[in-house]
Amino acid sequence: KNPVAAYYISDNIHLSAEGYNALSEHLRQVIFGQEQVGGYHFGDVECYVTTSGIDLSKDTEENGTVSVVGGGTQYGYLKDSFSDKLYVEAEFNVSQVLNNDVWPKFGLILHGQSELVSFYVDMTTALTSQTVGIVHAPAGQGYDWGSSAQSAVSGMAFTGEDTVKLSVVRDGSSVYFYVNDVLVMQKNNALAQENMAAGIFTFNTRMT
Predict the structure, then answer these.
(1) What is the pLDDT of residues 132-141, one digit of tens each?
(2) Which of 1, 3, 29, 59 is deepest in the core (most CB within 10 A)?
(3) CA distance 163 to 121
(4) Quick one: which H or E segment has residue 201?
(5) Which long-range CB contacts under 8 A does 117-122 form with residues at least 24 apart?
(6) Is 175 helix (H, G, I), strand (E, B) or coil?
């Protein structure tokens, strides 16, 4: 797989945090023989690696499921999602906050050479939320929380028998964000004209 700019800092020599994450994942697979076998929908796309804390064992058919069982930051990529025009949706059911995180989050991602864009549910430790947001991580840098935008959303429920549906539509440089099929945020002319991979992510959140 060819490396992309997102895996390097500005000198194009040293790895960024994303690059080290991908390298660590590949080393874990080689050293410990714990290769993450791709599922029906999820796996690796281009150079973007689905992390080991995501269980793909039930992602075996069109209506299969994936589970996030690992702590820290976990990323799962849709295998056929590398494009400048994308529609991605997922339903989330949360069961636990891990590692005593006081700012747990989950949601959808768009990941390209220029940046990582996360559409997140800003969850409480009580597994509730009335807020979603968008945060960008420029290539070779961490999330820029200072420029994160948020929107209040009432009626979200995602524990027990309930799920919340998140959707993202990417049309070239513009992107639209939905909760339970209702448009809640949008960014016009906000993205570089490049292909991006789509998927899911979590911060210390166990979920299906």
Answers:
(1) 999 999 988 8
(2) 59
(3) 12
(4) strand 197-203
(5) 117/175, 117/191, 117/196, 118/143, 118/201, 119/166, 119/168, 119/177, 119/185, 120/201, 121/92, 121/156, 121/158, 121/164, 121/166, 122/150
(6) strand
Alpha helices, DSSP H, located in the chain: 17-32
Separation of alpha carbons 109 and 21, rounded Å: 16
Burial of 38 (C-beta count, 10 Å sphere; 0-12/13-18/19+): middle
pTM comes to: 0.84
Q: How many residues make up the chain in this entry?
A: 208
- Kindly report the average pLDDT of the chain as a whole number: 88
- Tell me how far the alpha carbon of residue 146 is from its chain's centroid: 19
Spatial neighbors of 171 by CB under 8 A, at least 6 apart, are 85
Are 186 and 83 a contacting pair, CB within 8 Å?
no
